[in-house]
Amino acid sequence: MQFFILARFCIKDDVEITLSAAIFDGKGDNLFANLKDYNMFMFKFKYSF
Question: DSSP per residue over 1-43, as a string?
């Protein structure tokens, strides 16, 4: 099982902040169970000029 959470904030027309997380969970011997230790949190800052 995989969860992906995304939140995007546009502060101004030229400034954007994105926060996201990917959480892997699984039981047994499948792909997601093997990725359980590789959860991710991501931050993106975009500025256009």
Answer: -EEEEEEEEEEETTEEEEEEEEEE---SSSHHHHTTT--EEEE
